[in-house]
Write a structure and sequence with these properties.
Blueprint lengths: L2 E6 L8 H10 L8 E12 L2 E10 L7 H5 L5 H5 L5 E5 H5 L7 E5 L1
Length: about 110
C-alpha cells in the first residue's frame, strides 16, 4: 500500500521544526530540504490586523525516512511537528481524514 503525508494547514504556525528535523535526520545542508515551510504574507486584512499563513510541502528530496519507518518510528518531520499538523500513513486511511478543510495529501 502507498504511504503519504497528510498536512493540515490550519494548524501550522511556521515553527520550522519539521524542516530542521528533516535536515538533521538526513544530513542535508542548510539550503536543502526534504520538507519545506514557506511563509505566505503578511497581508493587511483590516486596520492593524495582519494575516500570515504557512505552506508545508514535501520536496523531491523527501525519502519518507525509510530507516525510521523500519524501526517502527514516524518520519522525523512528523515526530517533531509542534502543531500536530503532519500525519503519515496509508493513503486510504489519510484520505478518509480529509474533511474539506485546509489539508493536502502527498504520496512518498
Amino acid at each position: 500500500m502507498a504511504k503519504a503525508f497528510l498536512i493540515d494547514y490550519s494548524y501550522c504556525t511556521g515553527c520550522y521544526a519539521c524542516e530542521v528535523a528533516c535536515q538533521n535526520e538526513n544530513g542535508y545542508d542548510p539550503e536543502t530540504y526534504g520538507i519545506a515551510v514557506k511563509q505566505i504574507g503578511p497581508y493587511l486584512i483590516s486596520d492593524k490586523k495582519w494575516q500570515y499563513d504557512f505552506l508545508v510541502v514535501p520536496t523531491d528530496f523527501c525519502k519518507g525516512c525509510p530507516d525510521r519507518l523500519a524501526k517502527g518510528k514516524r518520519p522525523a518531520c512528523v515526530q517533531h511537528c509542534q502543531g500536530g499538523c503532519l500525519t503519515f500513513g496509508e493513503v486510504q486511511d489519510l484520505a478518509a481524514q480529509m474533511d474539506g478543510k485546509y489539508k493536502a495529501l502527498f504520496t512518498v
